[in-house]
Amino acid sequence: MPTEIIGPIDPADELPGIREIGVADLKLALVAGVNDFRAMPTHVIFLSLIYPVIGLLLGRLAFGYNILPLLYPMVAGFALLGPVLAIGLYELSRRREAGLDTSWHHTFDVRHSPSLPAILLLGGLLLLIFTIWIAIAHSLYVATFGYAEPTSLITFLEQLMTTTEGWYLAIVGNLVGFLFAVGVLMLTVVSFPLLLDRRVSAASAMLTSIRVILKNPVTMALWGLIVAAGLLIGSLPLFFGLAVVLPILGHATWHLYRRVVEPDSHPRPVFHARPRRIRYGAQFPASLFAPSAVEDETSEKRDRS
């Protein structure tokens, strides 16, 4: 029986249509995200645990190498990678919406997508943006306090909160981080869900996201605030709150995409998985490199049946 996985449609002649949405649509998207989280808690928790674990590792790395000034930029900037890291959550929401199986292994179906090169390209762009943000944050610290590293976290916090230089660093650093966040929001608010849903280029996906922002500036600004507030709340208890906040936001992003981007009229193709060949122990190690005549005959019989 054919297995339906990611199978984006053929490219359309025109970019997807964009709808005008309001606050009520954001609320409905969040409610749908919560419902998805309740329906698929095992899967989304399994995925979202990646976030707090990496966050803790980044914190440990910062302490271990005495780069405390970069701890906050690394944790805050990690959210810039969220859109690509949540791609498995988008797929689970898509499958649940279509009434398909939502087993955890379907989170990796993106590897079969014809849009995979575009997804990797856009993910690489986010990684580059994250790297640039860290470099700028480090440059701001050096320009303010020099190359001397704080001896402890308490010393660094006192330096940050009780000196003019510290306030300058906090204000300018957050303003620069805000600009990075706005840029990523404009480029990716619906890019990855669109790439999962259809076969489009990375440029078309980013352009569609920009069009969404331009047509709904107030609503999407509110969405950005919701995402930022959620990440902040989830980060407070040693990042473990992200195990709940991130899957909800990930699922809600898919439903937001559904509400703001007009659906495509083309039918979605069905992916036919190739049957696995039978490999016998007596044929090892040759069976690892070339299929035998016995395997080909067995496979042909199975296909005819």
Descriptive report:
The structure is a single chain. The chain has 305 residues and is mostly helical. It has 2 domains: 23-273, no CATH class; 277-305, no CATH class. It has helices at residues 23-39, 41-48, 50-64, 71-78, 82-85, 87-97, 116-145, 153-161, 164-188, 191-197, 202-215, 217-235, 242-260, 293-304. The longest helix has 30 residues, at 116-145.
Following the backbone from N to C, one meets helices and strands in this order, namely HHHHHHHHHHHHHH
Query: In this structure, how is the largest beta sheet organized?
Result: none
Tell me the span between the first and last alpha carbons. Answer: 11 Å
Q: pLDDT average, as an integer?
A: 78
Features of this protein?
mainly alpha; disordered N terminus; globular; 305 residues; 65% helix; disordered C terminus
Helices and strands in order, then pairings?
Layout (H helix, E strand, L loop, with lengths): L22 H17 L1 H8 L1 H15 L6 H8 L3 H4 L1 H11 L18 H30 L7 H9 L2 H25 L2 H7 L4 H14 L1 H19 L6 H19 L32 H12 L1
In short:
This protein has 305 residues and is mainly alpha-helical.
